[in-house]
Write a structure and sequence with these properties.
heterodimer, A: about 85% helix, B: mainly alpha, Rna Polymerase Sigma Factor, Chain: A, 2 domains, 9 helices
Chain lengths: ~160, ~190
């Protein structure tokens, strides 16, 4: 039973032994078991062959044309993104200059003045309309005042 | 003769963040082959691999300003690569589930595309290599990524754990299960 457990642990550890990822104590234990157990030794050799075939057979080459293609696409994206950023930045810089520089302040003051003049014009125009309406009303009243009603009973 | 000084990754990052585009290119060219190789193995498709490559480096480009220098650039890069690959695979699987009604048509067209894409001069890969690629395809995204980072790139489990934002024990489990699964599928072929 004890040997079975040991065997099971050995099988679990052999992958990490081959990766060289075991601590010293586990590695020593593993080596000791490998020397003493024929069954595990055979198992280990077969597994070692499998792991090395994985590393050998896995295709590590990248087609240079594919790499170049990927690089040029990325370069294109970055250039486009930089262009957009620089455009956005120049608009932002322009707006900042307008707001913070003295010329910008003058421009702001002038804008306020124009807004004031325009508002005043609107208000003035509004009062004219009211006056016109009043004049119209007065002329109507005048007209009503000048209507000659026929008195049906002059004795009243 | 004066030799050209090779700048460290961190020096290149600082130069990049100061607007040096050439520094960014140099930084990318140190690692982009590895990223493309992982993406290619992960997807088994050149176009998808290029999409992953692009997405990874766009994320790097955008995130470089916030790089804290707490880890190696390569660790950070492969963490991004791992995330992009796994997300890509999951979203692809989701799409495949949604379009299950069209499965038969897609299957037929995929076969047709594959056949028509085969160039005459294609180098014939070994039978084992094909079987290995097919077997790798059957692994879960996490198992596949752990396996590739270990067997393709040769990273230590500790490094893979940082890259994949997992505990070392979890990576060991992914690797253990991946290798057992591959062994089962490739039995008698190696």
């Amino acid at each position: 039973m004890g040997k079975q457990m040991e065997h099971k642990e050995f099988l679990e550890l052999m992958q990490f032994y081959l990766y060289d990822e075991l601590d010293i104590a586990k590695k020593n234990m593993f080596d000791a078991h490998l020397k003493s157990c024929n069954e595990c030794s055979k198992e280990f050799e077969a597994f070692k062959e499998f792991i090395s075939s994985l590393s050998d057979e896995i295709d590590k080459d990248v087609d240079p044309a594919l790499l170049q293609d990927a690089r040029s696409e990325l370069r294109g994206y970055i250039r486009a993104s930089k262009f957009n950023n620089s455009n956005n930045n120049s608009v932002l810089d322009f707006l900042k200059n307008i707001i913070y520089k003295p010329a910008g302040l003058a421009f702001g003051g002038l804008s306020l003045l124009l807004i004031g003049v325009f508002s005043g014009y609107l208000l003035f125009k509004e009062s004219n309309i009211i006056t016109d309406n009043n004049q119209n009303l007065n002329s109507d009243q005048y007209k009503i005042q000048n209507i000659n009603f026929i008195d049906s009973d002059p004795a009243d | 003769m004066k030799e050209k000084m090779l700048l460290s990754d961190n020096e290149l990052i600082i130069k990049t963040n100061n607007g040096d585009a050439l520094a960014f290119e140099e930084l990318i060219y140190r690692y982009d082959k590895m990223v493309l190789r992982i993406a290619l193995k992960f997807t088994n498709d050149e176009d998808e691999a290029k999409d992953i490559y692009q997405e990874v480096f766009i994320k790097v480009y955008k995130g470089l300003q916030n790089f804290q220098f707490k880890s190696e650039f390569s660790t950070w890069l492969f963490r991004i690569t791992s995330n992009v690959c796994i997300t890509f695979k999951r979203s692809k699987q989701k799409k495949q589930q949604i379009s299950i009604d069209d499965a038969e048509d897609s299957f037929t067209s995929t076969i047709a595309d594959t056949e028509s894409d085969l160039p005459d001069t294609l180098v014939i890969k070994s039978e084992f290599n094909d079987k290995l690629n097919n077997a790798i395809e059957t692994l879960s995204p996490n198992q596949k990524m752990s396996f590739l980072l270990k067997h393709l790139e040769g990273y230590k489990i500790k490094e893979i754990a940082v890259m994949m934002n997992c505990k070392e024990g979890t990576i060991k489990k992914y690797l253990f299960d991946a290798v057992r699964r591959l062994k089962l599928q490739l039995e008698g072929n190696y």
